[in-house]
Amino acid sequence: MIQYYFQLQIKILSRQLKAFGLNPILGLIFGPIFFVLLSWFIFQKLAFSEFIYPLIPIYIIHMSGNHLKTRFLKSYFSSRQCTMISLVQNISITVPFIIFILYKQEFTIAAILFLMPIVLAILNPVLRCQTKIPSPFSKLPFEFPIGFRKSLLIYSVAFIILIISIQVENFNLGIVVLGMTLLIPLGFYSYIEPKYYVMIFNDNPSQFLWRKIKTGLLFSMFFSLPVSIFLSIWYPSVCLIIIAVNVIGLILLLISIIAKYSSYPKSMSIVDSIMLAISILIPPLLLITIPRLYKKSVIQLKPILG
Amino acid sequence: MIHIQHLTKSFGKKEVLKDIELSLDKGMVYGIVGINGAGKTTLFNCIAGLEEYAGKIDSDITDLKNCTGILHTDPYFFDMLTAREYLTLICHARHLQLPDFNQKNIFNLPLDEYASLYSTGMKKKLALTGILIQQNEFYILDEPFNGVDIQSNIVITKIIHKLKSLDRTVLISSHIFSTLSKVCDIIFVLENNRIMKEVNRGNFDQLEADIIESTVGKDIDLLMQ
Questions:
Q1: Which domains can be identified in chain B, with CATH numbers?
Q2: Quick check: ipTM above 0.85?
Q3: Which element (helix H / strand E) includes B23?
């Protein structure tokens, strides 16, 4: 039965690739090539990549589950089978990353990442229990209260790393934490909400977008600001780097919001995704991409918001 | 008055709604009946602005979209969002002052629990609470009685009567004819993608008899032979 479940998962993935405009066979060929290139790029271009890179699979695993999926699995499988399914899924997500980390000879990080699927298979159902997790963002739903609850584990890890970075006086590690607090909210905008949750707004498309952007930027700073202040006090000589990381993080958040609505209610097309990725790699292109995405978002939202 | 003219909706080549004409007056409750898949929900989504369509909807209500509350058959709630946060979102979206949600919680829902974990009936009651808090002019209720307990059915019936007395317009679909006949002034029959009949309160018994005759009777005879 577990085997059939995974066969179905592969079918779903194949259909999702088709819906994304990609032939599944081509996806199978180019997927690993794209993964290696992206991994290579992260290690080549990004500072502190050895810390950032392993966080990607952890984040994917953490965000991949939800209570409906858990309820569905629990109604058809025994709890042992459910844990097995989580474990297999988590391992299949982490293995490509572990291979690349081993290739980069980061053996300690590879060993830690190897243990993460087991830890998360046990921890995630606990974190997704029915007890309400309080959120500092309850006053302005919905992206941040939900995102905060889903990312509580990642936020906890970030703040543990921050304390370690201060203790060992490692500024680089502190910047990684700052980057994490700015990157985590990007995931909050990856979910495409049903049209009803747009239609209810008494705003025109521009007002709606600005409302989303304002809330996103404000709440994003809720975590990044204390970390920035903390780092600025400890390392006053590198304030400019801290400001630059904040600016980049907030620009990325703005992009993720308008990118989401630029194809709403569908997900972004492969062409738009590639163009956006290129623009992020060559930042001056953002001067064209951001207004273009904004304009597209207004057009997409107009039939719903009027 | 809300006047729907020549509303047509297709999904690809499949025409779901054809040349729909409806006039909905203030202070009136309208029902729509039709078999599963007749297009009732699609019609509701078109009227609420959730689906694009061909045709025209005119109204003397200024800004109809922002005065419309739609209750879906199966309301969707985000994972890990509490009912109180959902109601907060609903109010923020319409620029409304946040009321005392405990006071407005007539169905006694556990507002601080995740709404996505509610039962079907509780979800419906929460969604209904949301659109009532918004104080809309026009209410579209898709199967409001489905899945809710007897007590809440009575409350919902009373709410519909109250909305009528407040001069609001209500459009309801239901597969339970007795509840529709209790609350509606006029019932429309949606058949073959069109509105085929408009029946006034005085002729509801005849309409029910016609529905039984044209659908259920023959099928049961065939099944039991």
A1: 2-224 (3.40.50.300)
A2: no
A3: strand B14-24
